[in-house]
Amino acid sequence: MGVLVYSWSTRDLKSQGRFSIESSGYTNMKISAGVGGSKLDARGGIIGGCIELQQLNTEGELGFMPSVHHCCSKVFCGNLCLLMTWFW
After folding, report:
1. What backbone phi and psi angles, to 5 degrees, belong to 75?
2. pLDDT, tens digit, for every residue of 8-35?
3. I need a labelling partner for 64 at 20 to 30 A (CA). Which of 8, 10, 15, 72 fits?
4. What are phi and psi of 54, to 5 degrees?
C-alpha cells in the first residue's frame, strides 16, 4: 500500500432558478444546473485513475395546479427527458 494522492478540479459551475405563483393558483418552479468540466485524478494506493466530465447540464421543472388536482414534473439531462404527471 502506498499513499493516495488525489486532485479534484471543477470549472464553469452554474445554476439558475425561478419560482412563480399565478393568481389562478398555478405554481411553477424551474431549476437548472451545470458544470463546464470536472476532473478527479487519483494516484498511488491500490487503484489509481482519472474521471473527467465535460459540459454536464441538467434542467428540471415542476408545475402544480390545485384546482384540477394535477401535478407535472420534467427533468432533462442532455438528450434524456423524464416526464412524470399525476392526478389525485
Report:
1. -130, 125
2. 999 999 999 998 988 877 888 888 888 8
3. 15
4. -130, 135
